[in-house]
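agent> fetching stored inputs for the S-adenosylmethionine docking request
agent> found them:
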Amino acid sequence: MTATDRNTRRLHIVTHGCQMNVYDSARMADVLAPLGYTAVDSPEGADMVIMNTCHIRERAAEKVFSALGRLRDLKEATGNQMMIAVTGCVAQAEGDILLKRAPYVDMVVGPQAYHRLPELIAQVHRSKGAVIDTDFPAEKKFDFLPDAAAPQGVIANLTIQEGCDKFCSFCVVPYTRGAEASRPVASIVAEARRMVAQGTREIALLGQNVNAYHGEGPDGRIWSLARLLSALAEIPGLSRLRYTTSHPSDMTEELILAHRDNPALMPFLHLPVQSGSDKILAAMNRKHKADDFRRIVTRLREARPDMAFTSDFIIGHPGETDADFAATMALVRETGFALAYSFNYSARPGTPAAGLAQIADEVKNARLYELQAELRRQQDAFNAATVGLNTPVLFTGLGRHPGQIAGRSLYAQPVVVESPVELTGEIHAVKITHANPNSLLGSLNKEVRAA
Ligand code: SAM
Ligand code: SF4
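agent> prediction call returned; pasting C-alpha coordinates
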Protein backbone atom coordinates (compact mmCIF):
# COMPACT_ATOMS: atom_id res chain seq x y z
CA MET A 1 0.00 0.00 0.00
CA THR A 2 1.35 3.47 -0.82
CA ALA A 3 0.91 6.81 0.88
CA THR A 4 -1.77 7.90 -1.57
CA ASP A 5 -3.89 4.81 -0.73
CA ARG A 6 -4.42 5.98 2.82
CA ASN A 7 -5.61 9.04 4.66
CA THR A 8 -3.05 8.37 7.33
CA ARG A 9 0.61 8.42 6.41
CA ARG A 10 3.29 6.99 8.60
CA LEU A 11 6.10 9.29 9.70
CA HIS A 12 9.27 8.07 11.40
CA ILE A 13 11.69 10.67 12.77
CA VAL A 14 15.24 9.78 13.83
CA THR A 15 16.84 12.44 16.02
CA HIS A 16 20.57 12.86 16.51
CA GLY A 17 22.36 15.42 18.67
CA CYS A 18 21.18 18.04 21.11
CA GLN A 19 17.93 18.78 22.96
CA MET A 20 17.21 21.45 20.38
CA ASN A 21 17.01 18.76 17.72
CA VAL A 22 14.63 16.79 19.97
CA TYR A 23 12.43 19.89 20.16
CA ASP A 24 12.70 20.49 16.39
CA SER A 25 11.71 16.89 15.64
CA ALA A 26 8.55 17.28 17.70
CA ARG A 27 7.73 20.51 15.86
CA MET A 28 8.29 18.84 12.47
CA ALA A 29 5.74 16.20 13.48
CA ASP A 30 3.34 19.09 14.31
CA VAL A 31 3.96 20.69 10.89
CA LEU A 32 3.18 17.41 9.11
CA ALA A 33 0.17 16.36 11.22
CA PRO A 34 -2.36 18.39 9.11
CA LEU A 35 -1.15 16.40 6.05
CA GLY A 36 -2.21 13.18 7.77
CA TYR A 37 1.24 12.08 8.98
CA THR A 38 1.26 10.25 12.31
CA ALA A 39 4.40 9.21 14.14
CA VAL A 40 5.49 5.55 14.11
CA ASP A 41 8.33 3.94 16.05
CA SER A 42 10.07 2.18 13.20
CA PRO A 43 11.15 3.11 9.66
CA GLU A 44 9.80 -0.19 8.28
CA GLY A 45 6.66 0.60 6.29
CA ALA A 46 6.92 4.36 6.90
CA ASP A 47 5.78 6.72 4.14
CA MET A 48 8.31 9.28 5.23
CA VAL A 49 11.49 9.09 7.29
CA ILE A 50 13.13 12.25 8.57
CA MET A 51 16.71 12.10 9.81
CA ASN A 52 17.25 15.16 11.98
CA THR A 53 21.02 15.39 12.13
CA CYS A 54 23.93 16.79 14.13
CA HIS A 55 27.15 18.20 12.67
CA ILE A 56 28.95 19.14 15.88
CA ARG A 57 31.67 16.47 15.68
CA GLU A 58 32.91 14.40 12.74
CA ARG A 59 31.61 11.17 14.25
CA ALA A 60 28.11 12.65 14.57
CA ALA A 61 28.09 13.63 10.88
CA GLU A 62 29.43 10.24 9.73
CA LYS A 63 26.65 8.48 11.65
CA VAL A 64 24.19 10.09 9.25
CA PHE A 65 25.71 8.44 6.19
CA SER A 66 25.76 4.96 7.69
CA ALA A 67 22.13 5.34 8.86
CA LEU A 68 21.13 6.59 5.39
CA GLY A 69 22.64 3.46 3.81
CA ARG A 70 20.22 1.34 5.86
CA LEU A 71 17.27 3.54 4.86
CA ARG A 72 18.13 3.15 1.16
CA ASP A 73 17.45 -0.61 1.42
CA LEU A 74 14.09 0.03 3.08
CA LYS A 75 13.19 2.60 0.44
CA GLU A 76 14.00 0.17 -2.35
CA ALA A 77 11.83 -2.45 -0.64
CA THR A 78 8.85 -0.03 -0.92
CA GLY A 79 9.44 0.40 -4.66
CA ASN A 80 10.98 3.78 -3.82
CA GLN A 81 7.67 5.06 -2.41
CA MET A 82 9.19 5.96 0.95
CA MET A 83 10.31 9.57 1.12
CA ILE A 84 13.59 10.35 2.90
CA ALA A 85 14.29 13.81 4.29
CA VAL A 86 17.53 14.89 5.93
CA THR A 87 17.08 17.88 8.22
CA GLY A 88 19.20 19.64 10.86
CA CYS A 89 22.82 20.73 10.84
CA VAL A 90 24.30 18.12 8.45
CA ALA A 91 21.62 19.13 5.94
CA GLN A 92 22.63 22.77 6.37
CA ALA A 93 26.38 22.21 6.17
CA GLU A 94 26.62 19.42 3.62
CA GLY A 95 23.44 19.66 1.53
CA ASP A 96 25.02 19.27 -1.92
CA ILE A 97 27.57 16.64 -0.84
CA LEU A 98 24.79 14.75 0.85
CA LEU A 99 22.72 14.51 -2.32
CA LYS A 100 25.79 13.35 -4.25
CA ARG A 101 26.65 10.68 -1.67
CA ALA A 102 23.05 9.63 -1.09
CA PRO A 103 21.07 10.37 -4.30
CA TYR A 104 18.07 8.44 -2.96
CA VAL A 105 17.44 11.26 -0.45
CA ASP A 106 14.36 13.26 -1.52
CA MET A 107 14.71 16.36 0.61
CA VAL A 108 17.47 18.30 2.36
CA VAL A 109 16.12 20.89 4.79
CA GLY A 110 18.13 23.22 7.03
CA PRO A 111 17.18 23.95 10.68
CA GLN A 112 15.62 27.32 9.81
CA ALA A 113 13.45 26.02 6.97
CA TYR A 114 11.50 23.06 8.37
CA HIS A 115 8.26 25.04 8.66
CA ARG A 116 8.25 24.75 4.84
CA LEU A 117 8.13 20.93 4.87
CA PRO A 118 4.57 20.64 3.43
CA GLU A 119 5.52 22.86 0.49
CA LEU A 120 8.76 20.90 -0.05
CA ILE A 121 6.90 17.57 -0.06
CA ALA A 122 4.57 18.95 -2.75
CA GLN A 123 7.62 20.08 -4.75
CA VAL A 124 9.13 16.58 -4.56
CA HIS A 125 5.88 15.09 -5.85
CA ARG A 126 5.73 17.66 -8.67
CA SER A 127 9.35 17.54 -9.76
CA LYS A 128 10.04 13.84 -9.09
CA GLY A 129 13.53 14.96 -8.07
CA ALA A 130 15.29 15.94 -4.85
CA VAL A 131 14.70 19.38 -3.32
CA ILE A 132 17.05 21.30 -1.11
CA ASP A 133 16.15 24.19 1.21
CA THR A 134 19.00 25.44 3.34
CA ASP A 135 18.02 29.12 3.33
CA PHE A 136 17.90 31.29 6.39
CA PRO A 137 14.50 32.63 5.31
CA ALA A 138 13.46 36.22 6.02
CA GLU A 139 10.18 34.92 7.49
CA LYS A 140 10.65 33.67 11.04
CA LYS A 141 10.19 29.91 11.42
CA PHE A 142 8.40 30.23 14.77
CA ASP A 143 5.74 32.55 13.28
CA PHE A 144 4.82 29.79 10.83
CA LEU A 145 4.85 26.72 13.06
CA PRO A 146 1.47 25.40 14.20
CA ASP A 147 0.76 25.04 17.92
CA ALA A 148 2.25 21.84 19.32
CA ALA A 149 -0.35 19.12 18.85
CA ALA A 150 0.83 16.21 20.99
CA PRO A 151 1.36 16.55 24.77
CA GLN A 152 5.08 16.91 25.46
CA GLY A 153 5.10 15.00 28.76
CA VAL A 154 5.65 16.03 32.40
CA ILE A 155 9.13 17.33 31.55
CA ALA A 156 9.44 19.18 28.28
CA ASN A 157 11.74 21.41 26.24
CA LEU A 158 10.86 24.78 24.77
CA THR A 159 13.21 26.55 22.35
CA ILE A 160 13.35 30.28 23.08
CA GLN A 161 16.50 31.31 21.23
CA GLU A 162 18.44 30.01 18.26
CA GLY A 163 21.70 30.56 16.49
CA CYS A 164 24.92 32.06 17.73
CA ASP A 165 27.08 35.10 16.99
CA LYS A 166 30.06 34.03 19.12
CA PHE A 167 32.08 32.10 16.55
CA CYS A 168 34.18 29.91 18.84
CA SER A 169 37.15 28.63 16.82
CA PHE A 170 35.98 24.98 16.91
CA CYS A 171 32.23 25.28 16.43
CA VAL A 172 29.91 24.86 13.42
CA VAL A 173 26.80 26.26 15.12
CA PRO A 174 27.05 29.87 13.83
CA TYR A 175 27.27 28.44 10.29
CA THR A 176 24.58 25.76 10.59
CA ARG A 177 22.04 27.52 12.83
CA GLY A 178 22.67 31.09 11.70
CA ALA A 179 22.66 34.36 13.62
CA GLU A 180 21.40 34.60 17.17
CA ALA A 181 17.65 35.29 17.36
CA SER A 182 15.26 35.34 20.34
CA ARG A 183 11.55 34.54 20.21
CA PRO A 184 9.13 37.15 21.61
CA VAL A 185 8.06 36.69 25.24
CA ALA A 186 4.33 36.44 24.41
CA SER A 187 4.78 33.46 22.06
CA ILE A 188 6.98 31.63 24.60
CA VAL A 189 4.54 32.23 27.47
CA ALA A 190 1.61 31.11 25.29
CA GLU A 191 3.46 27.91 24.32
CA ALA A 192 4.38 27.23 27.96
CA ARG A 193 0.74 27.69 29.03
CA ARG A 194 -0.43 25.20 26.40
CA MET A 195 2.20 22.72 27.56
CA VAL A 196 1.10 23.08 31.20
CA ALA A 197 -2.56 22.62 30.19
CA GLN A 198 -1.47 19.30 28.62
CA GLY A 199 0.29 18.10 31.79
CA THR A 200 3.81 19.55 31.61
CA ARG A 201 5.18 20.50 35.05
CA GLU A 202 8.83 21.20 34.24
CA ILE A 203 10.15 23.14 31.26
CA ALA A 204 13.74 23.44 30.08
CA LEU A 205 14.18 26.59 28.00
CA LEU A 206 16.54 25.86 25.13
CA GLY A 207 18.95 27.96 23.11
CA GLN A 208 22.47 27.61 21.72
CA ASN A 209 23.22 30.59 23.91
CA VAL A 210 20.13 30.68 26.02
CA ASN A 211 21.37 33.19 28.58
CA ALA A 212 21.99 35.71 25.78
CA TYR A 213 18.18 35.71 25.35
CA HIS A 214 16.85 39.17 24.54
CA GLY A 215 13.29 38.83 23.27
CA GLU A 216 10.65 41.47 22.72
CA GLY A 217 8.41 41.75 25.78
CA PRO A 218 4.68 42.50 25.76
CA ASP A 219 5.60 46.07 26.81
CA GLY A 220 7.62 46.52 23.60
CA ARG A 221 10.91 46.46 25.53
CA ILE A 222 13.66 43.87 25.32
CA TRP A 223 13.39 41.30 28.12
CA SER A 224 16.30 39.36 29.59
CA LEU A 225 16.24 35.65 30.38
CA ALA A 226 15.83 36.42 34.12
CA ARG A 227 12.72 38.50 33.39
CA LEU A 228 11.28 35.81 31.10
CA LEU A 229 11.89 33.20 33.82
CA SER A 230 9.94 35.24 36.37
CA ALA A 231 7.00 35.60 33.94
CA LEU A 232 7.02 31.83 33.32
CA ALA A 233 7.19 31.08 37.06
CA GLU A 234 3.78 32.74 37.43
CA ILE A 235 2.03 30.16 35.25
CA PRO A 236 -0.11 28.09 37.64
CA GLY A 237 0.93 24.42 37.54
CA LEU A 238 4.43 25.07 36.17
CA SER A 239 6.60 23.89 39.06
CA ARG A 240 10.12 23.77 37.68
CA LEU A 241 12.22 25.74 35.23
CA ARG A 242 15.66 25.12 33.77
CA TYR A 243 17.57 26.69 30.89
CA THR A 244 20.35 25.37 28.69
CA THR A 245 22.96 25.98 27.19
CA SER A 246 24.52 29.04 28.78
CA HIS A 247 27.73 30.87 27.92
CA PRO A 248 29.86 32.17 30.82
CA SER A 249 30.16 35.65 29.30
CA ASP A 250 26.35 36.08 29.30
CA MET A 251 25.91 35.01 32.95
CA THR A 252 24.65 38.34 34.34
CA GLU A 253 24.24 39.24 38.02
CA GLU A 254 20.48 39.53 37.36
CA LEU A 255 20.40 35.90 36.20
CA ILE A 256 22.56 34.76 39.12
CA LEU A 257 20.12 36.43 41.54
CA ALA A 258 17.18 34.77 39.77
CA HIS A 259 18.52 31.49 41.19
CA ARG A 260 18.08 33.01 44.68
CA ASP A 261 14.74 34.76 44.07
CA ASN A 262 12.79 32.54 41.65
CA PRO A 263 11.66 29.41 43.52
CA ALA A 264 10.75 27.59 40.29
CA LEU A 265 14.31 27.86 39.00
CA MET A 266 16.26 24.67 39.73
CA PRO A 267 19.61 24.92 41.56
CA PHE A 268 21.37 23.29 38.65
CA LEU A 269 23.23 24.93 35.79
CA HIS A 270 24.91 23.63 32.64
CA LEU A 271 27.73 26.09 32.04
CA PRO A 272 30.27 24.94 29.46
CA VAL A 273 33.79 26.17 30.22
CA GLN A 274 35.61 24.05 27.55
CA SER A 275 39.11 24.55 29.07
CA GLY A 276 40.82 25.73 32.25
CA SER A 277 43.68 27.39 30.35
CA ASP A 278 43.38 31.09 29.48
CA LYS A 279 45.72 30.58 26.53
CA ILE A 280 43.43 27.92 25.05
CA LEU A 281 40.27 29.86 25.92
CA ALA A 282 41.71 32.80 23.94
CA ALA A 283 42.64 30.46 21.04
CA MET A 284 39.06 29.16 21.18
CA ASN A 285 37.74 32.75 20.96
CA ARG A 286 35.67 32.01 24.06
CA LYS A 287 35.55 35.61 25.36
CA HIS A 288 35.88 34.44 28.98
CA LYS A 289 38.79 33.42 31.19
CA ALA A 290 39.01 30.53 33.64
CA ASP A 291 38.69 32.98 36.55
CA ASP A 292 35.45 34.38 35.10
CA PHE A 293 34.04 30.86 35.33
CA ARG A 294 35.33 30.49 38.91
CA ARG A 295 33.73 33.82 39.88
CA ILE A 296 30.35 32.81 38.40
CA VAL A 297 30.40 29.48 40.26
CA THR A 298 31.27 31.25 43.53
CA ARG A 299 28.56 33.92 43.08
CA LEU A 300 25.93 31.29 42.25
CA ARG A 301 26.89 29.23 45.30
CA GLU A 302 26.59 32.37 47.44
CA ALA A 303 23.18 33.16 45.91
CA ARG A 304 21.93 29.57 46.23
CA PRO A 305 24.07 27.31 48.42
CA ASP A 306 22.61 24.05 47.03
CA MET A 307 23.62 24.98 43.48
CA ALA A 308 25.29 22.24 41.41
CA PHE A 309 27.01 22.45 38.03
CA THR A 310 27.52 20.57 34.82
CA SER A 311 29.83 21.62 32.01
CA ASP A 312 31.38 20.76 28.63
CA PHE A 313 35.10 20.28 27.97
CA ILE A 314 36.99 20.03 24.71
CA ILE A 315 40.28 18.17 24.94
CA GLY A 316 43.11 18.64 22.43
CA HIS A 317 42.13 21.92 20.78
CA PRO A 318 45.06 22.98 18.54
CA GLY A 319 47.84 24.45 20.72
CA GLU A 320 46.86 22.58 23.93
CA THR A 321 50.02 21.62 25.86
CA ASP A 322 50.39 19.39 28.92
CA ALA A 323 50.41 22.58 31.05
CA ASP A 324 47.12 23.75 29.47
CA PHE A 325 45.56 20.37 30.16
CA ALA A 326 46.84 20.50 33.75
CA ALA A 327 45.04 23.87 34.11
CA THR A 328 41.81 22.19 32.96
CA MET A 329 42.26 19.39 35.49
CA ALA A 330 42.93 21.95 38.25
CA LEU A 331 39.72 23.82 37.40
CA VAL A 332 37.74 20.57 37.43
CA ARG A 333 39.13 19.51 40.84
CA GLU A 334 38.45 22.93 42.31
CA THR A 335 34.89 23.24 41.01
CA GLY A 336 33.47 19.80 41.70
CA PHE A 337 30.86 18.94 39.05
CA ALA A 338 27.65 16.98 39.43
CA LEU A 339 28.14 15.74 35.89
CA ALA A 340 30.05 16.91 32.82
CA TYR A 341 30.43 16.13 29.14
CA SER A 342 33.88 15.93 27.59
CA PHE A 343 34.95 15.40 24.01
CA ASN A 344 38.12 15.12 21.99
CA TYR A 345 38.46 18.12 19.73
CA SER A 346 37.11 17.27 16.28
CA ALA A 347 38.21 19.47 13.36
CA ARG A 348 35.13 20.77 11.58
CA PRO A 349 35.37 21.96 7.96
CA GLY A 350 35.11 25.73 7.60
CA THR A 351 35.88 26.56 11.25
CA PRO A 352 39.05 28.56 12.10
CA ALA A 353 40.71 25.88 14.29
CA ALA A 354 40.40 23.22 11.57
CA GLY A 355 43.28 24.81 9.62
CA LEU A 356 45.72 24.77 12.56
CA ALA A 357 48.29 22.09 13.47
CA GLN A 358 46.37 19.24 15.12
CA ILE A 359 47.19 17.37 18.34
CA ALA A 360 47.92 13.65 17.91
CA ASP A 361 45.01 11.31 18.68
CA GLU A 362 47.04 9.33 21.29
CA VAL A 363 47.71 12.55 23.23
CA LYS A 364 44.07 13.59 23.08
CA ASN A 365 42.88 10.11 24.10
CA ALA A 366 45.21 9.95 27.11
CA ARG A 367 44.10 13.40 28.35
CA LEU A 368 40.42 12.63 27.79
CA TYR A 369 40.77 9.38 29.73
CA GLU A 370 42.29 11.20 32.70
CA LEU A 371 39.64 13.93 32.64
CA GLN A 372 36.76 11.49 32.32
CA ALA A 373 38.06 9.38 35.23
CA GLU A 374 38.04 12.50 37.44
CA LEU A 375 34.59 13.58 36.21
CA ARG A 376 33.27 10.06 36.90
CA ARG A 377 34.65 10.25 40.46
CA GLN A 378 32.94 13.60 40.94
CA GLN A 379 29.62 12.35 39.55
CA ASP A 380 29.72 9.29 41.81
CA ALA A 381 30.54 11.46 44.82
CA PHE A 382 27.70 13.86 43.98
CA ASN A 383 25.19 11.01 43.66
CA ALA A 384 26.48 9.24 46.78
CA ALA A 385 26.04 12.47 48.80
CA THR A 386 22.28 12.32 48.16
CA VAL A 387 21.91 8.97 49.99
CA GLY A 388 19.97 9.53 53.22
CA LEU A 389 18.54 12.89 52.07
CA ASN A 390 14.87 13.70 51.66
CA THR A 391 14.61 15.30 48.26
CA PRO A 392 11.67 16.52 46.15
CA VAL A 393 11.06 14.34 43.10
CA LEU A 394 8.81 15.24 40.16
CA PHE A 395 7.24 11.99 38.98
CA THR A 396 7.11 11.45 35.23
CA GLY A 397 5.60 7.97 34.83
CA LEU A 398 6.03 4.28 35.47
CA GLY A 399 9.46 2.75 36.13
CA ARG A 400 10.94 -0.06 34.09
CA HIS A 401 9.83 -2.77 36.51
CA PRO A 402 6.28 -3.50 37.77
CA GLY A 403 5.41 -1.56 40.93
CA GLN A 404 7.99 1.12 40.25
CA ILE A 405 7.48 4.77 39.38
CA ALA A 406 10.16 7.15 38.13
CA GLY A 407 10.89 10.84 38.33
CA ARG A 408 13.59 13.50 38.45
CA SER A 409 15.38 15.18 41.32
CA LEU A 410 16.19 18.91 41.54
CA TYR A 411 19.42 18.05 39.71
CA ALA A 412 17.63 16.09 36.94
CA GLN A 413 18.90 12.76 38.32
CA PRO A 414 16.52 9.90 37.44
CA VAL A 415 14.94 8.60 40.68
CA VAL A 416 13.08 5.29 40.96
CA VAL A 417 10.79 4.30 43.87
CA GLU A 418 8.42 1.44 44.67
CA SER A 419 4.86 2.72 44.77
CA PRO A 420 1.39 1.19 44.65
CA VAL A 421 0.04 4.48 43.26
CA GLU A 422 0.92 6.37 40.11
CA LEU A 423 2.00 9.91 40.93
CA THR A 424 2.69 11.26 37.44
CA GLY A 425 2.96 15.05 37.44
CA GLU A 426 3.21 15.29 41.24
CA ILE A 427 6.17 16.30 43.39
CA HIS A 428 6.83 14.30 46.57
CA ALA A 429 9.68 14.03 49.03
CA VAL A 430 11.71 10.87 48.50
CA LYS A 431 14.27 9.47 50.90
CA ILE A 432 17.24 8.42 48.76
CA THR A 433 18.43 4.95 49.72
CA HIS A 434 20.92 4.03 47.02
CA ALA A 435 22.98 5.76 44.31
CA ASN A 436 23.69 4.01 41.01
CA PRO A 437 26.12 5.57 38.52
CA ASN A 438 23.33 7.28 36.55
CA SER A 439 20.23 7.05 38.76
CA LEU A 440 19.02 7.02 42.37
CA LEU A 441 16.74 4.66 44.27
CA GLY A 442 14.52 5.90 47.08
CA SER A 443 11.37 5.42 49.13
CA LEU A 444 8.25 7.53 49.52
CA ASN A 445 7.01 8.42 52.97
CA LYS A 446 4.19 6.29 54.40
CA GLU A 447 1.34 8.82 53.88
CA VAL A 448 2.01 9.06 50.15
CA ARG A 449 2.31 5.29 49.77
CA ALA A 450 -1.02 4.82 51.56
CA ALA A 451 -2.87 7.60 49.69
N1 SAM B 1 26.83 27.15 23.20
C1 SAM B 1 27.46 26.25 24.02
C2 SAM B 1 28.74 26.86 24.61
O1 SAM B 1 28.99 28.01 24.45
O2 SAM B 1 29.54 26.18 25.17
C3 SAM B 1 27.79 24.95 23.37
C4 SAM B 1 26.94 24.37 22.36
S1 SAM B 1 27.73 23.09 21.43
C5 SAM B 1 26.35 22.74 20.43
C6 SAM B 1 27.81 21.72 22.57
C7 SAM B 1 29.19 21.25 22.91
O3 SAM B 1 29.77 20.53 21.86
C8 SAM B 1 30.19 22.36 23.20
O4 SAM B 1 30.06 22.86 24.49
C9 SAM B 1 31.51 21.68 22.99
O5 SAM B 1 32.04 21.16 24.18
C10 SAM B 1 31.17 20.56 22.00
N2 SAM B 1 31.78 20.84 20.70
C11 SAM B 1 31.46 21.81 19.83
N3 SAM B 1 32.28 21.78 18.76
C12 SAM B 1 33.14 20.76 18.96
C13 SAM B 1 34.24 20.23 18.22
N4 SAM B 1 34.61 20.75 17.06
N5 SAM B 1 34.91 19.18 18.74
C14 SAM B 1 34.56 18.63 19.92
N6 SAM B 1 33.52 19.10 20.66
C15 SAM B 1 32.83 20.14 20.20
FE1 SF4 C 1 29.33 27.17 19.39
FE2 SF4 C 1 28.52 27.77 21.87
FE3 SF4 C 1 30.70 28.94 20.84
FE4 SF4 C 1 28.28 29.56 19.88
S1 SF4 C 1 29.08 29.94 21.95
S2 SF4 C 1 30.10 29.17 18.67
S3 SF4 C 1 27.23 27.58 20.03
S4 SF4 C 1 30.39 26.75 21.33
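agent> quick read of the result: The first helix runs from residue 19 to 32.
agent> awaiting further instructions
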